[in-house]
């Protein structure tokens, strides 16, 4: 049975490579230059039912695990990093629903709808004035007679206008402290987005991560029954950093592959060339090896905690430190590896019109350390390492 499942997944990976070559790569430059949503990519992704890939089989999903979702993100990123990032962010929201809300009728029905319609979920977890702190909200649920309203100013909602649904965070009620938050799923008919900023950036331009004023309303059964801090520590935080690190690895794989082609071509044209490019290729391949192993180690740790089924296991500071370190180290390696690949490829990598171009790769690379800023994560780790006792 396991062998059969592995074969099925290998076939799925090959299908993703095919749409990557035929669709994602074909439109990636246009998506990047126009900073537009990669609609062609997601039309293709939906034909493979990948939007619901993490959903349980009993709901019609594929029940893929975190390792498999990460692999899909990695493969997509070889062809279009913006598409891979959007897919990752969508799957983060799906994981939050699957892990924490399937005891309620509303969310059970939603997952079936997700499978049937291959819906795209966006997220509004940050708020203007909180400094990017996900565990703090000003806006609050205003509930009356089983219904609620929420007004929120979100500095960033990636692919917000293209999404079918939106998950947002807010204080449980107007009397609750900023840290007493809930997690709410809304469909597009239940909220209005008014743009307050545009998305004209250096990289990851296709994610269309503009800011919006949100006016939303719904019924109280749409509120996730688990407090948001638990959802964040058990699902959103680890799922995000693992799948992001995986897709950043995919960007690096494509960059190193271009460097490899460049070295092979140079040696073929002139066998007497100095060995410097080959040595540089070996060095950058070694750094890629480290990056991939870091992702694998994090997946193993996270899978073990999910299998244990003990929510308290995620409050261990050691796990949070590891996941934070994965994000920091992977985002730094991304810049290093793509930069070294550019040195190997030479001036061709610096040209937008060259087959060896790595212009989009390097621009996307610099966004990785800025989304959930590495300095803020490092400051958080600086506190955690003082409290954490190694081995406990």
Write the layout of secondary structure elements.
Elements: H1 2-34, H2 39-47, H3 66-77, H4 81-100, H5 105-117, E1 121-124, E2 142-144, E3 147-157, E4 165-171, E5 181-187, E6 191-195, E7 210-219, H6 228-269, H7 276-308, H8 317-345, H9 359-368, H10 374-387
Helix pairs in contact: 1-2, 1-3, 3-4, 3-6, 4-6, 6-7, 6-8, 7-8, 8-9, 8-10
Written overview of the protein:
The chain is of the alpha+beta class and 392 residues long. It folds into 3 domains: 2-120, Butyryl-Coa Dehydrogenase, subunit A, domain 1 (Orthogonal Bundle), CATH 1.10.540.10; 122-222, Butyryl-CoA Dehydrogenase, subunit A, domain 2 (Beta Barrel), CATH 2.40.110.10; 228-387, Butyryl-CoA Dehydrogenase, subunit A, domain 3 (Up-down Bundle), CATH 1.20.140. The chain is built from 10 helices and 7 strands. Strands 2-3-7-6 form a 4-stranded antiparallel β-sheet, with no helix packed on it. A 3-stranded mixed β-sheet has the order 1-4-5, covered by helices on one side. Helix 3 crosses helix 6. The relative contact order is 0.11. The model has no long low-confidence stretch (mean pLDDT 94).
> Which architecture of the largest domain would the CATH scheme give at its second level?
Up-down Bundle
What's the total number of strands? 7
Q: Which strand-content bin applies to the residues?
A: 5-15%
Structural class based on helices, strands and sheet pairing: alpha+beta
H/E topology pattern: HHHHHEEEEEEEHHHHH
């Amino acid at each position: 049975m396991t062998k059969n499942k592995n074969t099925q997944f290998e076939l799925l990976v090959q299908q993703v490579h095919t749409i990557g070559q035929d669709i994602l790569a074909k439109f990636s430059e246009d998506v990047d230059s126009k900073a537009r949503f990669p609609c062609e990519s997601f039309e293709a992704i939906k034909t493979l039912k990948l939007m619901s890939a993490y959903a349980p089989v009993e709901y019609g999903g594929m029940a893929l695990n975190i390792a498999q979702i990460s692999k899909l993100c990695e493969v997509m990123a070889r062809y279009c990093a913006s598409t891979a990032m959007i897919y990752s962010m969508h799957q983060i929201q799906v994981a939050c629903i699957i892990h924490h809300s399937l005891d309620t009728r509303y969310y059970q029905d939603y997952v079936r709808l997700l499978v049937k319609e291959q819906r795209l979920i966006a997220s509004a977890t940050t708020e203007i004035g909180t400094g990017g702190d996900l565990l703090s909200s000003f806006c609050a649920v205003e509930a009356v007679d089983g219904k609620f309203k929420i007004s929120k100013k979100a500095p960033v909602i990636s692919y917000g206008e293209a999404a079918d649904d939106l998950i947002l965070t807010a204080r449980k009620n107007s009397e609750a402290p900023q840290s007493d938050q809930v997690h709410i799923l809304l469909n597009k008919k239940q909220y209005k987005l008014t743009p307050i900023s545009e998305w004209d950036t250096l990289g990851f331009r296709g994610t269309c991560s503009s800011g919006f004023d949100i006016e939303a309303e719904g019924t109280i059964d749409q509120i996730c029954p688990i407090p948001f801090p638990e959802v964040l520590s058990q699902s959103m935080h680890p799922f995000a950093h693992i799948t992001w690190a995986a897709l950043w690895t995919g960007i690096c794989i494509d960059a190193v592959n271009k460097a490899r082609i460049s070295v092979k071509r140079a040696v073929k044209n002139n066998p007497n060339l100095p060995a410097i490019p080959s040595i540089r290729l070996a060095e950058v391949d070694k750094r890629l090896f480290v990056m991939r192993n870091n992702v694998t180690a994090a997946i193993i740790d996270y899978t073990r905690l999910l299998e244990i089924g003990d929510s308290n296991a995620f409050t261990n500071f050691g796990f949070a430190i590891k996941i934070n370190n994965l994000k920091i180290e992977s985002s730094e390696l991304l810049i290093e590896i793509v930069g070294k690949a550019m040195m190997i490829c030479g001036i061709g990598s610096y040209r937008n019109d060259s087959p060896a171009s790595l212009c989009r790769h390097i621009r996307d690379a610099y966004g990785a350390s800025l989304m959930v800023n590495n300095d803020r994560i490092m400051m958080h780790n600086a506190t955690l390492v003082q409290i954490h006792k190694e081995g406990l």
